[in-house]
Amino acid sequence: MRFGVVAIEFIPAVKRIVAGGIPDFSRISMVEIVREAAAIEHIQAIEIPMEIEHMVPGSLTPEVILELAELKDELGLSYTAHLPFWAIEMSSFNDYIRTGSVDSNVHSIRVVEDLEPEAYVLHSTGSLAAEYCRQGFSPGVDRLVQGYMNAFAMKSVEEIISKSEVNPRKLAIENIEFPFEFTREIVDEFNTSICFDTGHLLTKQCGDEPLSDFYRKHRDRITEIHLNDGLAEKNEAGGYQDHLALGTGDMPVRDFLLELVKDKFEGPLIFEMPYEDAIESLNTINSLVPEALQ
């Protein structure tokens, strides 16, 4: 099995940028960051968070992309790219916001296409759709609103494929805070793939079935897994407790990973968490299901 990490998370990025209370964007080098991530034992895949291009100007110039491509060959890595999702709303009924979100994703695909990512992870809905899911409408109204927003998301995905000319199977639509039954309609309509985020399911953001049931139901399209633990209970502030190190939440780690081993799952399993939590997760895997590291 092939494990990977996100090149850099938001908080670690801020810590690198800010020194003595003063931001210095030159402290971010994606080439150095990828080399550092690849040095972690058992890591073979790196996910590039495309928000970094907007957060840190100059972080993904054509010159940097060329260096990352050379690093890929040097270290025997594979890349995936997580398309932007902060302040992005593909399902917005405000067409200015929706089309801007589409254009942002198309731009990001073009920025990293020379890296030949295995997958472009995509959120087909965003925080606005998630907010509507929390409104507590009656079931009939709830489904009506969700279906309405999903129709806009479907239009957005169609436009991304058309404008970018990306192979639809390279788009891995993630299960996020939105009923996945609607998201699966987009997957089937446009022949895309799925990025299965285990923490999002464990925290019941997109459904309440067990991990293995979700995997078996959608295994025909799952090409990448965001492997993280989660707790069904929300924290004291009412937030989701996901993206935890394996073994610190509700995940049946051995049972789930053994299923992947037996199924010979070939896609990257990306730890969407800080490096120290990824290392803790790998140690847990080594202890509970060493077969997954062979």
Report on this structure.
With 294 residues, the chain is α/β, with parallel strands linked by helices. The chain has one domain (2-293): Divalent-metal-dependent TIM barrel enzymes (TIM Barrel, Alpha-Beta Barrel). The chain is 46% helix and 17% strand. It has 12 helices and 12 strands. The longest helix has 26 residues, at 139-164. 44% of the residues are buried.
List the helices and strands and how they pair.
Blueprint: E1 2-6, H1 10-17, E2 18-19, E3 22-23, H2 30-38, E4 43-49, H3 52-55, H4 62-75, E5 78-82, H5 95-112, E6 120-122, H6 127-133, H7 139-164, E7 171-174, H8 180-190, E8 193-197, H9 198-202, H10 211-218, E9 222-226, E10 229-231, E11 241-244, H11 253-263, E12 268-271, H12 275-288
Parallel strand pairs: 1-4, 1-12, 4-5, 5-6, 6-7, 7-8, 8-9, 9-12
Antiparallel strand pairs: 2-3, 10-11
Précis, in short:
The chain has twelve helices and twelve strands. The chain is of the alpha/beta class.
The CATH architecture can be named as Alpha-Beta Barrel
User: What's the total helix number?
Assistant: 12
Low-pLDDT segments, ≥5 res: none
**CATH evolutionary superfamily:** Divalent-metal-dependent TIM barrel enzymes
Distance between the termini: 7 Å
* Rg calc: 19 Å
Spatial strand order of the main sheet? 1-4-5-6-7-8-9-12
- How would a textbook summarize the main sheet? 8 strands, parallel, barrel
Number of strands: 12
Strand pairing plus helix content: what structural class? Answer: alpha/beta
Large-scale geometry: globular
Give the topology string: H per helix, E per strand.
EHEEHEHHEHEHHEHEHHEEEHEH
**Beta-strand residue fraction:** 15-25%
Number of domains: 1
CATH topology category name: TIM Barrel
Briefly, what CATH class?
Answer: Alpha Beta
Helix content: 40-55%
Q: Average pLDDT value?
A: 94
